[in-house]
Design goal:
Distance between the termini of chain A: 15 Å
Low-confidence stretches of chain A: 273-277
Number of strands of chain B: 19
Strand content of chain B: 15-25%
Radius of gyration of chain A: 22 Å
Oligomer: heterodimer
Helix content of chain A: over 70%
Order of helices and strands of chain A: HHHHHHHHHH
Mean pLDDT of chain B: 89
Number of helices of chain B: 16
Shape of chain B: globular
Radius of gyration of chain B: 25 Å
Low-confidence stretches of chain B: 23-43
Number of helices of chain A: 10
Structural class of chain A: mainly alpha
Structural class of chain B: alpha+beta
Strand content of chain A: under 5%
Largest sheet of chain A: none
Number of strands of chain A: 0
Helix content of chain B: 25-40%
Largest sheet of chain B: 11 strands, mixed
Distance between the termini of chain B: 53 Å
């Protein structure tokens, strides 16, 4: 297909794919590769340097850092992917409907949704955690709530633009039902900017989850998460620096790759470059 | 292109310079200029203020409530009692100038220092002493040692303005020890009556420092009280307690010079600081880590289950993880060497034996284990790490534990009301005499140091006898029986002795980390502490 070919020709896309594919592989098959149980403690061998038995050494409980790294991506990806999906579905729907209806009702919907933008992300997350407890489920809900307005706005503005176009007027004169118009015609045409927002949201969500886990408010011990590992490791920088560097490096690469992917998608789907519309 | 690069470089250097200079501002508040208006010749060499990096923000400044060692540092600056432990471990006079014990062994007469005043200028009188101890018994105050004083005190008589007489219900060997508690403070009757008895909102005591300001969650400033009954004290005019809950940040604040003294230094940081001659590290091994078990919750109500936990806990693992190998495992009952004649008889009551633990669980009917929650805190790393090692130990015998890690204030609120299944606790026993066990193991209302729901008639009787017997040989025998009974019933699972570590910069003098379990009373030496300017 034309699109796929264009994707593969884009250098940023390929580079980020090269990083993301192993990450996805780790997320799916990490449990088979990991040499040890990430929760298994070897308290007689704490803060050990890298060895054959422990490829990245051990943490303060004597747990294998490499194994914890492999498992640690899961909470980040779960929160970000599921959260983004939820925000995408709900936000796009709200924006689409508001844009199509227009007028006062459309305005009302959009302004209501936009009140969420008043909350700084970390603050809202901490509020939810304090009231309802920490953990992956609550964090996912926070991500969904936080990013609904972003998708809603994009869907709304794109819908308003597309609504006025010829083929939509066509559909209406032909007597198409509203849902078919919304989903069939309009949605197909506003999909591109939404795709870009999806990748941006994923990277923000990964950062949010890592930040909260670093503070101790995200994934609760003993289950690993990269942000949490970085938080635990900072007390031992003088003893074993690699304990912090490994999860930091992996986190950095993953977010970089997701952001690059977003950039690449924007390049690919930018209307000015497209042949057909 | 070249000029653009030049501009970028210049911009980079400028911003770096800005960042560095901003980092320098707002740091050290402690290096004040030496005051020339000091009353003694030595004052010219002392800094005006001292900055203390404090590990926890007080949830309350109510002096009769024990809410942790960090808060006690502040409390002992603001409030004093009749007596207190000194830096050499002996009992010294505070508000009381002297006292006598009558031959009946239940009447204690205290003479108050003539120059003892409260911080509002009023004299400390016998009426205030009587009021203070009656306030200990007042349920609305929720004093930590209410049950102990209620048990001991019959009534208090005001003999004259500066003489007060305590009459006990029965002889009590450790009574004087209880008067040295940092919570056994003397407060002003007039002040409490006119301020709704709320000392948290309106603190006023008789200690060497008054409360200057409390910026909640950030800083507490104390100012010297020049009417303090010890002439020439305190040494330093102002103490700034900066709340720095993160362990690494607190140690860094000492290293950068922002803080002159820090508490709760972790084992890994202590080892590094000990090697540096710019810092003094003061270590006392006295507190111990233990699990307080809620004896009302399901399987935990069965002593066999609690014993199983005692066999399952990997004590050496806790020491290696949370304390970097510094500390001693405890397989018996926590006791100071030779305390009340103890000879080590029960030191090996338990061993690390997960198989035996599983057997006991099976006997109790829980061959498939059960679910339980462990309450700890995220504020102190060693508390969190102890909880995780215990969780791992319990997993090995089939008990599925979830660890809860709220901040210290929340954890204290929950532990004071018994809202937990298993609690990770680090404590030191409060008084040097074995009678410290009464506050921990006597049946009654749930309190900070008790295992909720624990109640045993034999234990109560042994504690009562131990307290009322004055003969030391008889007391030693009573406490031996007590230890055996407590280990058998295991409302607490004892894990290890740990170190309590303070660190100061090398030019800070006068602060002493009191030995052994008295480490929690170290706040008393803040009146002697100064920084050579």
């Amino acid at each position: 297909m034309n699109t796929i070919k264009r994707c593969l020709q884009n250098k940023k896309f390929v580079f980020s794919l090269i990083i993301l594919l192993p990450m996805i592989f780790i997320a799916l098959f990490g449990s088979s590769i990991a040499p040890h149980d990430p929760l298994e403690m070897h308290t007689t061998n704490t803060l050990a340097a890298a060895s054959v038995q422990f490829p990245m050494g051990t943490d303060e409980y004597g747990r294998c850092i490499f194994s914890r790294l492999l498992y640690g991506i899961r909470p980040s990806l779960t929160v970000s992917l599921v959260g983004t999906l939820g925000a995408f579905l709900i936000g796009s729907f709200c924006g689409l409907v508001a844009g199509y209806i227009g007028g006062k009702a459309g305005n009302a919907i959009m302004r209501t949704v936009e009140t969420i933008l008043c909350f700084p992300a970390i603050l809202l997350a901490m509020m939810v955690v304090c009231l309802f407890g920490a953990g992956v489920r609550n964090l996912t809900i926070v991500v969904v709530i936080l990013y609904i307005p972003h998708f809603a706005r994009i869907a709304n503005s794109s819908t308003i633009k597309v609504k006025k176009m010829e083929y939509v007027e066509n559909d209406i004169s032909v007597g198409q039902t509203t849902p078919k118009i919304l989903i069939g015609t309009i949605f197909r045409n506003i999909f591109s900017p939404l795709i870009i927002q999806i990748s941006l949201t994923i990277s923000s969500a990964i950062l949010l989850e890592s930040g909260l886990s670093f503070l101790g408010l995200g994934v609760q011990p003993p289950e690993p998460s990269w942000g949490q590992m970085i938080g635990d490791a900072k007390a031992y920088l003088s003893v074993n620096m690699m304990y912090m560097l490994w999860p930091a490096l992996f986190l950095c690469l993953t977010i970089l790759a997701v952001n690059l992917m977003g950039d690449a998608l924007r390049d690919i789907f930018d209307p000015k470059l497209q042949d057909s519309f | 292109m070249k000029s653009k690069l030049w501009v970028k470089l210049a911009a980079g250097v400028l911003s770096a310079a800005m960042v560095i200079s901003m980092g320098g501002c707002g740091s050290s508040t402690s290096s004040g200029t030496a005051s020339g208006a000091g009353s003694s010749a030595a004052a010219a060499n002392k800094a005006d203020s001292l900055t203390i990096g404090l590990s926890a923000d007080p949830s309350t400044l109510e002096p009769m409530v024990q809410s942790g060692q960090a808060v006690r540092l502040i409390k002992m600056c603001m409030y004093r009692g009749l007596l207190a432990y000194e830096s050499d471990g002996s009992i010294g006079n505070e508000i009381a100038e002297s006292y006598e014990v009558a031959d009946d062994n239940v009447t204690y007469t205290f003479h108050i220092r003539p120059n003892a005043k409260f911080q509002d200028g009023s004299d400390i009188t016998a009426e205030d002493v009587k009021f203070s101890f009656e306030r200990q018994l007042d349920a609305s105050v929720s004093a930590t040692f209410r049950s102990d004083f209620a048990n001991m005190l019959d009534h208090i008589d005001v003999v004259d303005t500066k003489t007060v007489k305590f009459v006990l219900k029965q002889p009590c060997a450790p009574f004087i020890d209880y008067l040295t508690l940092p919570e056994a403070v003397i407060v002003s009757k007039a002040w409490c009556n006119s301020h709704n008895n709320d000392l948290n909102a309106n603190p006023m005591g008789s200690g060497p420092y008054t409360l200057g300001s409390w910026d909640k969650g950030r800083q507490i400033t104390l100012k010297a009280f020049d009417g303090f009954y010890k002439a020439g004290k305190p040494e330093t005019k102002e103490l700034d307690f900066v709340v720095t809950t993160d362990n690494t940040t607190r140690v860094n604040s000492l290293k950068s010079g922002e803080a002159d003294l820090i508490d709760y230094v972790g084992a890994n940081d202590a080892t590094a600081l000990e090697k540096d001659s710019n810092y003094t590290v003061d270590v006392s091994e006295g507190p111990f880590m233990c699990l307080q078990i809620n004896c009302t919750k399901g399987p935990l109500a069965d002593p066999k289950v609690r014993q199983a936990i005692a066999y399952a806990v990997n004590r050496q693992g806790v020491i290696d993880t949370a304390f970097m190998g510094r500390g001693t495992a405890m397989y018996g009952f926590p006791t100071i060497d030779g305390q009340n004649g103890y000879d080590g008889k029960y030191d090996n009551y338990f061993q690390y034996n997960p198989d035996k633990a599983k057997e006991l669980l099976k006997e109790a009917g829980y061959a498939n284990g059960f679910d339980v929650k462990i309450l700890s805190t995220s504020t102190y790393d060693f508390h969190k790490q102890t909880a995780l090692v215990v969780q791992d130990s319990l997993k090995a015998i089939g008990i599925n534990a979830e660890v809860e890690l709220p901040d210290w204030s929340t954890r204290i609120q929950r532990s004071n009301t018994g809202d937990y299944d298993i609690l990770v606790s680090g404590t030191a026993g409060n008084i040097v005499d074995m009678d410290w066990c009464t506050n921990y193991f006597q049946s009654g209302d749930t309190r900070m140091n008790s295992a909720p729901g624990f109640s045993d008639a034999t234990v109560d009787s042994l504690l009562k006898q131990g307290r009322e017997t004055l003969d030391s040989t008889k007391r030693a025998a009573i406490y031996d029986q007590f230890r055996e009974k407590i280990l058998e019933l295991s409302p607490f699972v004892f894990i290890n002795y740990r170190e309590q570590i303070f660190a100061t910069s090398a030019d800070v003098k006068g602060f002493v980390n009191l030995p052994g379990i008295l480490t929690y009373n170290s706040g008393i030496t803040l009146e002697d502490t100064y920084k050579a300017a």
